[in-house]
Amino acid sequence: MHLFPDLRGQVAGQLTALSAPGAPLHRDSDQSTARLYLRSDIGRARFQKDTIDWYLSQANPRLGGRTAIVTAGPPGAGKSALLRARIADLDEYRIIDADIIKDHLIRQAIADGIYDRLLATAPFADGHGLAPRELSALVHVESVRLAEAIRQTCTSRKENVVIEGTLTWHRQGPNIFRELADNDYVDVEVYGIDIEQKEAHESALDRWWKLRLEWAKGQHDLGGRFTPADAIDMCYQTASAESVCTANAKNFINTAIQTGEIPRVHVTILRRSATGPIEVIYERSYLQ
């Protein structure tokens, strides 16, 4: 239950306008770090290398297990919570999550002062300005590039990895499969979250708003990550169909059958039931 549902809607509307193409919070804005710092920028390249080193230092996963977990689902689907609930030995895996990198980039951007003007913009309907995580779209491109570099390093080491993502793009799954096969991975688990479009919208809004309220009270340093509606809508071809994320997760099996290059591939699609628990709605395996 939301204490101020109308206020939440007003602030979401204001952020949506600022996140539209051509607006300052759109991921292709001139304010994005991918545009502010050229690839030839030596200082930024050094910072990116330091970021990769920092990320790799955060965990000590099992080496040589050659096991990968891949997640799929629209923003707001609850993929991270799913992993914690279903994977008992998660500490043995390197979790590769671009959202963790986003937070690191945002903290650095604030320290560098590059978004001071944006953070000082006029307050929204709730009386507060931008929370730091509401800048996430501006570090999106750079965070994805860094996540890919980290993933390639980890798979070359044959670490146990969790590759968190949406699988919205139809080529993302085959590309990940190819990288894992080229590095001799033997076991791949794919977990997809099936969630209705309307529910995904509500979940993303609810998560963002709760953290924004905490940030406004001084109880959270970054606040919530706002997801514009179109970032969720692109995951659905029609309102009644399953998400493209689910379809692309299922396609891992077809890739496994066609190539025969990874000995075991298992795909599980889950959905939260009306009474709350997570239930399996699709399961298929490929085993050599």
From TrEMBL:
Enzyme class: transferase
Cross-referenced Gene3D superfamilies: P-loop containing nucleotide triphosphate hydrolases
EC numbers, comma separated: 2.7.1.176
Keywords (A to Z) from UniProt: ATP-binding, Nucleotide-binding
Keyword Iron-sulfur in annotation: no
Domain Zeta toxin, chain residue ranges per copy: 64-246
An example molecular function term from Gene Ontology annotations: kinase activity
Name of the protein in question: UDP-N-acetylglucosamine kinase
InterPro entries: P-loop_NTPase, Zeta_toxin_domain
Signal peptide: none
Keyword field contains ATP-binding: yes
Catalyzed reactions: UDP-N-acetyl-alpha-D-glucosamine + ATP = UDP-N-acetyl-alpha-D-glucosamine 3'-phosphate + ADP + H(+)
Similarity comment: Belongs to the zeta toxin family.
